[in-house]
Design brief:
Elements: H1 2-21, E1 41-46, E2 63-67, E3 78-82, E4 91-94, E5 100-102, E6 108-113, E7 116-124, H2 130-133, E8 135-136, E9 149-150, E10 156-159, E11 171-174, H3 175-179, E12 192-195, E13 197-198, E14 201-202
Antiparallel strand pairs: 1-4, 1-12, 2-3, 4-5, 6-7, 7-11, 8-9, 10-11, 13-14
């Protein structure tokens, strides 16, 4: 019964996306990343599974990418906060060309530092900024865990500083460091998942 309710929840989410974006954003099934379609928005959550340990805790934790400003203005950074499904500043639009935009400000794009490695921020989307605003994201199934790479360097991963804490800014760092924060501890912070999440328990099927 719980699984059926979760499937219904996801279908309602997709339905609401179509109502928000309509045909103006050229929404069509089958995008560049498996089932991804232009204009679909999701929360972006640090991947967690049983056996992982962050801050000496083994319990499920839900940390989502969030604008540092409520309106996701150009110049804002991106941080992790507790996943809250109703917060629009945690919703991101994923495009087939590798751009990622906040739902509430489609003029802004997630942008790397000019050195690529370092903290990310929101900047005005521009074609001349492709090197800093286009990313390698999903595998064949967009709902599988994935690493979030800059197009120019697949050895860098989007991550936070060590184990996640409320309000930490996101940055690109060596995937090796992000995957193995503490030697001998399963504390990967190099992988992400998309979907609908609330608190420290996801609501995906």
């Amino acid at each position: 019964m719980l699984r059926i309710m979760n499937i219904v929840k996801l279908l309602l989410t997709v339905s609401s996306i179509l109502q928000v974006h309509g045909d103006d954003n050229n929404i069509q099934l089958g995008g560049g990343y498996g089932d991804l379609s232009n204009g679909f928005y999701f929360q972006l959550k640090l991947f967690w599974e049983d056996g992982m340990i962050w801050q000496n805790y083994e319990k499920s934790q839900g940390w989502c990418a969030t604008c540092t400003g409520f309106y996701c203005d150009v110049g804002d950074h991106v941080m992790i906060t507790k996943c809250l499904e109703h917060m629009d500043d945690q919703k991101w639009i994923f495009y087939d060309d590798g751009r990622v935009k906040p739902l509430i400000n489609s003029d802004a794009c997630v942008t790397t530092d000019r050195k690529i490695e370092g903290y990310v921020r929101l900047e005005t989307c521009r074609q001349e900024s492709d090197d800093y605003q286009r990313f390698q994201l999903f595998n064949n199934n967009i709902f599988d865990k994935f690493q979030f790479h800059p197009r120019r360097d697949d050895k860098l991963c989007l991550t936070n500083d060590h184990h996640p804490k409320e309000g930490e800014r996101l940055k690109f760092e060596s995937c090796i460091i992000a995957k193995e924060n503490d030697k001998g501890v399963y504390d990967d912070t190099s992988h992400w998942g998309i979907g609908a999440f609330d608190g420290h328990k996801d609501i995906n099927p």
